[in-house]
Amino acid sequence: MFERHGGSDGENSHAVTGTLVHTLVQALAGRIPPERIDQALENAWGSVDLGSDWYARRELERTRRMLDTFSTWLQGTRSELEEVGVEVTVDGMIEPREPGAPRIRLRGRIDRLERDPDGRPVVVDVKTAKNPVSKDAARDHAQLAAYQVAVAEGAVEGEPAAAPGGARLVFVAKPHNKEGATQRIQPPLDEEGLEHWREVIHEAAAATRGPQFLAQVNDGCRHCPVQSSCPAHDEGRQVTG
């Protein structure tokens, strides 16, 4: 809400780069020749104002390396994963936990949906951050878990409800000698794990119903563009309208 009403200065270079990389990654996955991808990158980069030529050149090369890293990861995982789709829509309902409680609509978009050798859907989320999360953090990664719940609930477009095959974060800004890109794995959720994350989703939905919203310090605070307006931080100040 703050950002929508002037609380930030618009997208920064990292956000622009991240969006561009995601777009080109999907193009690579769509078997578009690398030379056409590189030309599209050059054309798009000409319209991005990064403030100085040297910085723009450096970021362009960094983006090229991310695309190369993704290509290496893609080629190296075809023996264990089979592509089902890219930019796959998530849209479905989660039933209430108790009588009278609302149903929860789960919506999103999965970067890549793969299938493992056992035929189970595997969620892949491409990340452009320079520093991968820890392995422990990946096991508790809420976004990945929500997508695994979506798989189990039949909320993934074109896929019937099924036991999930786990999920992965693929950090294309961090090459890996063996895996192509650094990966972080979230194991397949069993029924107990799915129930836990369904409960988390219901709690999150309840916290956003309003009319009041509780500000809580969390990992996202590090890159929040409106932290100076947040009452959960000492530097936050009152906002009047």
Keyword list:
alpha+beta; five-stranded mixed sheet; 6 helices; 5 strands
- Average per-residue pLDDT, rounded, comes to 86
Span of the ends, CA to CA: 13 Å
- In one word, what is the shape? globular
Q: What is the element string, with H for helices and E for strands?
A: HHHEEEHHEEH
Low-confidence stretches: none
CATH architecture designation:
Alpha-Beta Complex
Quickly count the helices: 6
CATH top level? Answer: Alpha Beta
- The level of helicity is 25-40%
Strand content: 15-25%
Query: How many beta-strand runs?
Result: 5
Summarize the structure.
36% of the residues lie in helices and 20% in strands. The protein is of the alpha+beta class.
Q: How does this structure look, described?
A:
The protein has six helices and five strands. It has helices spanning 13-29, 34-45, 53-76, 135-139, 142-153, 191-207; strands at 82-94, 104-115, 121-127, 167-176, 180-186. A five-stranded mixed beta sheet has the order 1-2-3-4-5, sandwiched between helices. A hairpin with a 3-residue loop joins strand 4 (167-176) and strand 5. Helix 1 packs antiparallel against helix 2 (34-45), helix 1 runs parallel beside helix 3 (53-76) and helix 5 (142-153) packs across helix 6 (191-207). The mean pLDDT is 86.
Topology of helices and strands:
Layout: H1 13-29, H2 34-45, H3 53-76, E1 82-94, E2 104-115, E3 121-127, H4 135-139, H5 142-153, E4 167-176, E5 180-186, H6 191-207
Helix pairs in contact: 1-2, 1-3, 5-6
